[in-house]
Amino acid sequence: VQLQASGGGLVQAGGSLRLSCAASGRTFSGYDVAWFRQAPGKEREFVATIRWSVGGTIYADSVKGRFTISRDNTKNTVDLQMNSLKPEDTAVYYCAAKFSLDTSYNYWGQGTQVTVSS
Q1: CA 108, CA 21: separation in Å to the nearest integer?
Q2: pLDDT digits over 33-58, tens only?
Q3: What is the distance of C-alpha 44 from the center of its chain?
Q4: What are the φ and ψ backbone dihedral angles of 51, each rounded to 5 degrees?
């Protein structure tokens, strides 16, 4: 499956952005989808995931209560709604997918830049 991330941009602290991860070549059916981010000089970190089998979601503690991951089956996208953004949320955000029975994410999008100004 090929992934395309979009929706990044520049926003002031306290603002909101909505990222979208679109799949081409097939649907997300049977796949867990996640968002990761990587800030300059830092390791890539997990942000959130939505699981195909039960539709459950998991969030990093740093974004819990502010970010919401959701799946839109009609548009074949997985979105990340980001509210109450902080400067420390600044990073390149990547969407990733794995077949639900796999242990690691092996499909990655190209990344979209999110910059939060103070």
Answers
A1: 10
A2: 999 999 999 999 999 999 987 779 99
A3: 12
A4: -95, 140
Q: Are 3 and 97 in contact (CB under 8 A)?
A: yes
β-pairing, 91-99 vs 77-82, is unpaired
CA distance linking residue 57 with residue 54, whole number of Å: 9
For position 1, what pLDDT does the model report?
82
CA 82, CA 60: separation in Å to the nearest integer? 13
Give the percent of the chain with pLDDT over 70.
Answer: 99
Tell the residue number behind the tokens 């548009």, with chain if given: 75
Cα–Cα dist 66/53, whole Å = 24
Which tokens is 66 given? Answer: 């502010």
